[in-house]
Design a protein that fits this description.
about 210 residues; alpha+beta; 8-stranded mixed β-sheet; 7 helices
């Protein structure tokens, strides 16, 4: 498959495996979308807190912002977000350099909320390879004996931040690894697809929607 001039794009949601999660389905003391705002503030991540979604089979909350120059270029050439993983898999081929649309979203972090720390960590770790990642668990979980010797040790190995929450608010249990989204960061087929999905969600949250000509 080759890219056509102007980054001809296809939006194939049947291959995207994207779904929006119910905000109260994580066993936490408040809706996830509300808790995520406080968690992201504690983490000092920049960007918009997007709706909870299932991505790569994991329930997560992405935090991202548009890359102005790349977004403007894609609007000019009519390059909409591409959600077809098969097509995106070709974008990292050496021969495709300079023939694919630029990444128009910057994913500043991925938050994984869950009632069990193992579930949350399993959700967060795949994203920690290309962005900041954090988990959010109920306070009674983090207060259990052995939490430090199990969850925190494993989270530290992957550079994942750990937060807990109860009716009194958010508490940081472990700071995560600082992740710099530098141009030199190697892009993979997975990270590029995640970027396109997040770009699509960013545009859906914008008002008014951009014109693609």
């Amino acid at each position: 498959m080759t890219a056509t001039p102007g980054y001809a794009a296809r939006d194939d949601r049947s291959n995207g495996r994207i779904s929006v999660c119910p905000t109260g389905a994580h066993g936490l003391p408040a809706p996830v979308d509300e808790l995520a705002e406080s968690a992201v503030e504690a983490l000092e991540w920049t960007g918009s807190v997007l709706s909870p979604m299932r991505l790569l089979g994991r329930r997560i909350v992405p935090v991202a912002e548009l890359v102005p120059d790349a977004h403007a270029e894609r609007v000019c050439v009519g390059s909409e977000p591409v959600l077809d993983r098969t097509e995106i898999a070709t974008w990292v081929w050496p021969e495709m350099t300079d023939r694919v649309p630029p990444a128009a979203a910057r994913v500043s972090g991925v938050l994984a909320p869950a009632r069990h720390w193992r579930t949350a960590l399993t959700a967060a770790v795949p994203f920690a390879r290309f962005t900041s990642a954090a988990i959010l668990v109920p306070r009674h979980v983090s207060d259990r004996e052995g939490f430090v010797s199990t969850c925190l040790i494993r989270a530290r190995q992957f550079g994942v931040a750990v937060l807990s929450t109860d009716e009194h608010g958010i508490r940081t249990e472990l700071e995560g690894r600082a992740f710099e989204d530098a141009p030199s960061t190697e892009q993979t087929a997975v990270s590029r697809w995640v970027n396109e999905v997040v770009y699509d969600q960013l545009l859906a949250s914008e008002a008014p929607a951009p014109s693609w000509g």
